[in-house]
Structures are given as structure tokens and as C-alpha cells.
Amino acid sequence: MTEANINVDPSEIAKFSALAHKWWDTESEFKPLHEINPLRIDFMQKHVELAGKKILDVGCGGGILAEGLARHGANVTGIDLAEKSLKVAKLHLFESKLEVDYRCVPVEQLATEEPESYDIVTCMEMLEHVPSPASVVAACARLVKPGGWVFFSTLNRNAKSYLLAVVGAEYVLGMLPRGTHDYAKFIKPSELARMTRNAEIETVSLSGLSYNPLTKIYKLDDDAAVNYLIATRKAP
Fold first, then answer.
1. DSSP 186-232
2. Are 25 and 52 in contact (CB under 8 A)?
3. What is the mean pLDDT of the chain?
4. 40 in a known ligand binding site
5. Which of 63, 73, 108, 119 has the fewest other C-beta atoms within 10 Å?
6. 141-183: pLDDT as tens digits
7. What pTM does this model have?
8. 59 is in an annotated binding site
């Protein structure tokens, strides 16, 4: 795969590279990821046992989810194209004493090299940051074994998500750096469902992920208007 064909937005890589040293600072811009990490894992565990599974975390960043999965007994590989984030992820393993195989490789390339190799594939908070989310979804589907699970999370596209995820989180509450999200790249559940159908993985369930600014608590619920997660499965 040539550099010109890699499904990546250089400005997105630069954005996360500039913040790479803060990945494991729980009071930094990555605080929301640390706080929702247990919820993401809970959502997965409602569908499949993680212990002993071979899991691929696509767009792993600094390794927050990858380490969480490893802590639950999974054999985890994390891939990302932001080399600075991967360096931070690898360094943090010395502190956590966990084992994760981190690799800088496009998901489409890995899908060609290792088709149907993973029991579970996760792709969290990444689809809204790439030029072609459908390409990522298709690659994730190729990577998972028959009968395996693929989990996605992303942001819905509507007035409420713009007000809360962009205006509220970035400009009013200052939870995220300004410019973190491009509203035009947000993905409606119906659009993601179409991508998964085209990739021949079946959507099993959808859950909203909501934040209460008063209690400052996140929770899984039925409100998928802003953040949402979906569980999909490849036919056995």
C-alpha cells in the first residue's frame, strides 16, 4: 500500500501527535477516554468473553483501550498510524506490566496480510477521523474470524451532537481541544449500519453513551443521539 493510498488524514495524525505525551494523564484532554473506557469494555463483555481472545484494537492511540482489554486477559494487538502515540503506548507498558503488541500499520494493509485472524476487532472513536470510514469498516470485517465480533463507537450527526460534542465539549466546557472533531465527519447509525451490511457483518446491538455535565458521569443508555457504540458479528 503506497502512502498516497493510505486511508489517513495527515491533519488528524498531527493533531493527536501533538497531544501524544498526555495520553496517560487522566486529567488531560484524554480524560473522557479514561472515564468511558470501563463502559466500552462493559458493552463488549455483554456480548462476548474477553479473556483468552485474540483482539485487534484499530486506532489504538496511546493504548487506553488496548491495556484495558489486556487487563481482562485478552491477547491484544493495537495498530495506529500516529507513531508518537504508539511510542507512548509502548512506554506505558513498562509501568502497567501488561503485554500488548503495538504496530504502525494501516488497517487495510493488515486485513490483506492477516485475514480472519482475530476473535474480536475493536474500532473506537476512530471512524470520524478518517477520510473513508467505510474502508475501515470493511477492513475490520475482513480481519475478524467467522463467528467473531467487531465493535465500533463513533459520533452521531445531528443538531444535538453538534451542540454537545463540538460546541459544548470543545468550546463551553473545554473537555476537548478546539478542533478535535469535524462535524461533517460524524456518522449516523443508519450510515454505519449500511457500511457494516456492505462489509457482511451483522449489527447485533446499539447503545448510546451519554454524559451528564452536572454529575460529570458517563453512562450506557438508549440515547444514541450523540455518542454510540454498536456490536456486530460475522456469520460463522
1. ---HHHHHHHHHHTTEEEEEEEEEEEETTTTEEEEES--SSEEEEEE
2. no
3. 90
4. yes
5. 73
6. 999 999 999 999 999 998 787 676 555 555 444 555 555 667 7
7. 0.91
8. yes
